[in-house]
Fold these 3 entries.
Entry 1:
Amino acid sequence: MTVAIMGGTTLILACVGLPFLINARNGQRLLATGIPAQAMVESMADTGVTVNGQPMVSFVLGVRAQDGQAYRVTHRQTLPRIPMGVVAPGVTVPIKVDPQRRDRVRIDWGSWRPVPNGA
């Protein structure tokens, strides 16, 4: 009986946690191999999910690719604490774009720098 409970608990935890692990791994790979671009935050909304103390946010981004082409993409990603009060609609953020699927993007928080007022 104990083995069945432990097995069931492990299965449930794997089913819940595995998508988060896969998403994190894919995000790290995209940051390492993606094509740099810029995106303007058009809108953002809280998803009600928190990952490692950071809120998961649904962003609508206006992407400007290196080739000059502009397009819109909806993207979900955690919002770190540092830029939390500064990132808002109208702000430009650095992103990495999947060269195979332009709708897959990742905000590059490590490269993000706030623009001073008046700049």
Entry 2:
Amino acid sequence: MLNRRDVLRNISWLAGGAIITPALLHSCQNEPELGWKPAFFSDDEARFVTAYIDTLLPTTDTPGGLDVGVDRFIDKVMAATNADTDELLPMQTGIRDFDEDARTRFGKVFHELEADQRGQLFSDAEKSPRYQPAVWGTAVGEQPPIGFYRSFKSMVLWGYLSSEKIGTEVLVYDPVPGEYDGDMPLSETGGRSWSL
């Protein structure tokens, strides 16, 4: 048989739960579900990577970057090539700086922004120095320092264009190519570029 003290304690637990539970549920709903467990990135860094890739390569009539797993691919590459270090890497500091810029300009980190706000950040970042043309791997002229946005964009495009789905279903793929024709019109390939 419950005494008065036990009844009051149980009521206070129920009242506290009724107040706290909606707040917890609301805070959990604000963080988008990743759908995968990062091996290298923290959850917040992985959310940034996912949002960056989805902004750069959204799903259209062709698969987007997330459709072919570029976010998981980059995470695996980073985990495999940086397993022996506990230091903060340039990619991680770049993510934090990009997030800080988003927070300064829009009051939220990058993955929480609306599409047009992300687009504004990308447009401004596109004005940063570009890679100089290269001949046989050597830059022509002086190579300016390439910031996080461009280096990460290169990695995302590399992951996207080297994925099996894009290489075989979006680009023209011929596993046993014949003679080289550097002046073949796209009309002869169905309007698609070659993957190899």
Entry 3:
Amino acid sequence: MNISSYLLALFTSVGAMTLFSALMSVILKYELRENILLSKVMSGHSLNQKESPKYVTLGWLVHFLIGGFFLMIYTYLWLNTALIQHVLGSIVYGVIIGILGILGCTILFKITPNSPRINYKVFYMQLIAAHIFYSLGNFLIFSLLG
């Protein structure tokens, strides 16, 4: 896979995940966007406080770095196994990394002194679905590119 294909997959998958989280934020009236919550964790600000461009950028950067890490694993699995070369396998991959995301967020929120006050149950449930969209975004690009 060349770098442009990798970046296309990264922006598609993280974009699909973030779009889903933004939509769920509007529907459920909770802040669920991962990049925003990451910026709040790094700045120590509450959800009500306006974030500086520095922390907004850092939130996006961390979100894309994590997405890039899981895309490397996805790429390896795609190229070396048949596990995720179908929709069901990609959904299972999304569930697995969603569970890993919950574990990571749980640790992050526990070790951060001023974690954002959110409905964690709702956030974690939608996080699994968001990771399914992430994985299906990768599936779409990998399927189209061959």
